[in-house]
Design goal:
single chain, alpha/beta, four-stranded antiparallel sheet, binds adenosine-5'-triphosphate
């Protein structure tokens, strides 16, 4: 099992935000994490990455339990986290951002990322910080692909992006997951969009798993609306 989370609880110091979450992801599997604002989705992603505090439970990669607060162990295992701030290096060019990712790669990447994101090729000498949000997200995903990631965890994939860019990101993620066997764990404000990319879904309510299952089944479940309505 690539990622195995068992009864995970925690948050920030002694403030418990996430309660008793269990989930698994195998190579190439895709999982959407949904829930109302403030229900703990970002905190859970940060806990997985070792960037927030764990009070109980285990996180294992390839069957090996990770010590708390160990983000380096995750990147060594081929797990990449894209925060909602995108996480590009703003004062490096697009090309430098990508080269840096290749230098720190978990494994060699044979993908031509410009074939997925042709607009980046046109802007390879532009500073990443001067790009639009949509192009920065493309740089961030391209960097994750260049590092040979086995699992890409994305917080707020499409927030604030125009529809044509959203469509491109969806197409690329569906393709790399299916063709390259890259696993995805996604948070997005648009539940239907997240479920169109991910085969499975888990919905948090007040930091606890409320419902989970196949996206195709849960997308029509009336409980989903109740759990997402503000
Ligand atoms: N650094 C922090 N210290 C203490 N509490 C925090 C911290 N960051 C977030 N929180 C709190 O944790 C709770 C969950 O926030 P989180 O960002 O994980 O939710 P979310 O489901 O991702 O929501 P959103 O969709 O609005 O980003 C919120 O009540 C938030 O105020």
């Amino acid at each position: 099992m690539l990622l195995d989370i068992r009864e995970l609880s925690g948050g920030y110091k002694d403030i418990e935000i996430v309660n008793e979450v269990s989930l698994t992801l195998d190579e190439g599997e895709t999982l959407a994490l949904l829930g109302r604002n403030g229900t703990g989705k970002t905190t859970l992603l940060r806990m997985i990455m070792g960037l927030a505090d764990r009070s109980r439970g285990t996180i294992s990669i390839d069957g090996v339990p990770l010590p708390p607060r160990s983000p380096a162990a995750l990147s060594r295992a081929g797990v990449t986290f894209l925060p909602d701030t995108r996480g590009v290096f703003p004062r490096l060019t697009v090309d430098e951002n990508l080269r840096l990712a290749r230098m720190n790669a978990y494994r060699r990447c044979s993908l031509d990322v410009f074939s997925y994101f042709p607009d980046l090729a046109l802007r390879s000498h532009q500073f990443a910080g001067t790009l639009s949000g949509g192009l920065q997200q493309q740089v961030a995903i391209a960097r994750a692909l260049m590092t040979g990631s086995r699992l890409i965890i994305i917080d707020e994939l499409t927030q604030g992006l125009q529809p044509s860019i959203v469509e491109l990101l969806v197409d690329v993620l569906v393709a790399v997951s299916a063709q390259q066997g890259i696993a995805l764990l996604l948070v997005d404000q648009n539940p239907q969009l997240a479920m169109s990319i991910c085969r499975r879904v888990i919905v948090l309510d007040h930091g606890r798993p409320a419902i989970s299952g196949n996206s195709s089944v849960l997308s029509a479940d009336p409980r989903l609306t109740d759990l997402l309505i503000v």
